[in-house]
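Re: [help] complex structure
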Amino acid sequence: MSGREPQPLTVTLSALPRLAPRTSSFIDVRSWVFWAGLALTVFGIWRWTPLVVTSLSSNPTTGVLSAILWLLYGFVFLVLLYRLELFERRSPATVIGALLWGGLAGPGMGVVAAPAMHDLVAAVIGSDNPWVPSFAAPLVEEPLKLLGVLALALIPGARVRSAADGLFYGAVVGLGFQASEGFLYTATFSAESGTGTVTAMFLLRGIINGLWSHATFTAVAGAGLGYFFNASADLRRRITVLVGTLALAVALHGFFDAPILGPNPFVSSIVKGLPVLLLFLVVLRWAHLRERRTFAGLAAHVVPDNLVSPGDFTALATRRARRRARRWARKRGGYMTARALKRLQGAQLSLLTASHEDGWGSPRTEELSRDVRILAATVDRRQAEWDSRR
Amino acid sequence: MNPAEPPAAPTTETIEVLRRRLPLSIRLIGRSSVPGALLVLAIAAVFIGVVPLAAKIQLNSAQASGEIIAVGNAIGLTVANDWGVQSQDGRATVLSSGSSHLVIAPAYEEQRSPAQVVAAEVSRLEGDESGAWVVGEPGPFVTAQGDGGATVAASSETAATQVWAVAHDGLTTVAVLSTTIESWSSAQPRAQEMVDSIVFSREPGNGASPGVSP
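Output below.
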């Protein structure tokens, strides 16, 4: 997919002086997009909160239990998403912004739009048609979730600078949406019942059907949006990828909600979920390869070799390579050397990230270059101490 | 890159290529954010303004809000806002609002209590092969006229349903709401409103048993 895009352009851009974003996260009070996003989040809270309050007050026990379960669910999957990051640690403030969009703005607007879309689809294909949810839900939810990633991409400080960034923030928005929606449905339907319904709802929506749900769909669309904003390919190609990945997310969501494959939720979920998961992994691989190619180019052509050489990048390119390098350092220089190398690897990756995001010569790259020099000297010192003890 | 070498200076050709193919994310830096904000608000307006308006226009052609309708010979109810009568025959009256339906059976003579009627519905839902339902626990409720009843709600991944049974002087009626889970928060309060407005007024109809199902 990325074969036709000339790599040197992306890399050359990082070598040229340019303006840097004025903030380190999406919180940019001088950006109208920030205020538009905030206004829509307030709208979402206004529409979403009464439903949440009703669910909690109808039965505080099941409401609180639902909240705890879905918060834990969101937390566990957020940690997993962080583990999926190949090179960079994204700004926690921007990640929280994406979660807030997914958990409040998206569902709050969905409360207004989703029933209306169901009514419109029902008017077209018949209100008794069991396919109504599989057409209506994705047509509302996928664009509304992606709108959050679009808002982030339009704020330069959020640094949505690659397909991998779009994928990551899409997954975070989707996760927030899933946890918020799952909580509301669980709390609502268990309010008149009991904790047994909470468990059953959580199993159905979180485990059986949730493992390849909203986060996966929005990650796919988010990768396309990240490509649209960051590729140097021509506009037609970028629009094709953006519209194509959004259409794919809508289709995957519709397929997942489709009334096919019988009543057994386990069989249905696995048979429907596996293709969804496979497609997600393909998009993830594509985004990671693009990211790795850019970073390899930066190490080869932009960042000085005494900071990150192409050889260094070979040992940074994958998590496995980094672990292997640390194991080797531990064997050869002991635990302290391996620990120092881990910190050096983190600083080198941050330097490559900063070069990509803000350009070489930016204040961030200058600061991180100093860090890399100090940490490289520390690794050498630890190694020397180890050698002198032996 | 060798530390002694500065990054290669771009040629005129490179600069021209860059000008044409500079990624959008970089072109946005330092530019006005107003167009982006308007784009975000416009997309949101489609979903929270245009789509609901279109649905409202669609619904207005069929709604009968505020109307009191007779269901069989023995009960009447007030149609809620945005709802309309889809069909009526001797077996059931079907009210609808978009993708949501409320099916109400005419009153019939029933020996069982509303709780027992609802318990039978629970068994039916649990054995339903058309969807994997998470069925709640049945609970009591009272209509605006003071008639006692029982109700239970259930949901699947994409659908939601609620069954009510109301009894009055040996007569019982059953109402079933069927909707999508996304429409539940807007459909359920209206359906509850209509069930609460049920008034038993005359003798039972032809004695037909309810033929309603979600």
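Residues 188 and 344 of chain A are 50 Å apart (CA to CA).
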